[in-house]
């Protein structure tokens, strides 16, 4: 009973207050709350450049936080991913996507979700997150290009989706996507190799 009273009347501060995440946090079950605090603490300990201490999670006065709701949850999700807790990471990444943010931020999250799916060797998950990122591409393209010095870098979702289409026997669609990657100016070091392989497969299919 004393613990419950303390929980009700304790100061609601820290990053949770600064980012207006207290209501979201309190609506989670105890297991989920514990997971978030755990990976926040892991980040504090392992990431020396992280600007906050353990106490800043839910107490104290944090002014001008360096994160938004979305980027804060995503950085905790990334810590869970690096620690091999894929279930928690996926859940937190998807919670982050529900928060307001930019298409570029969503791309970074979806990129991590594609990587997570690759680690799990879960092809359905890979397909889902690749499709979401590719659909979002027109909205984050210019921001990504700007942040990459004027040249679009490799985009994992496109490359993985080529692989998935080929794996499903959709060689023509895979080849079309390869050409789209090239025409968009996305860095794709395997272009010639993949195009040659897919073209040969398509020729064989047509007999």
Contiguous low-pLDDT stretches (5 residues minimum) are: 1-9
Radius of gyration: 21 Å
Major beta-sheet overview: none
Q: What fraction of the residues are assigned to beta strands by DSSP? A: under 5%
Name the overall outline: elongated
Number-wise, the strands total 0
Helix content: over 70%
Task: Calculate the mean pLDDT score and round it.
Answer: 93
How many helical stretches? 11
Structural class: mainly alpha
Order of helices and strands: HHHHHHHHHHH
Question: How far apart are the first and last residues' alpha carbons, in Å?
Answer: 77 Å
Question: Concise description?
Answer:
The protein has about 210 residues and is mostly helical. The chain is about 70% helix and about 0% strand. It has a domain at about 1-100.
List keywords for this structure.
71% helix, mainly alpha, 207 residues, 0% strand
Describe the structure.
- The chain is mainly alpha-helical.
- It is built from eleven helices and no strands.
- The radius of gyration is 21 Å and the shape is elongated.
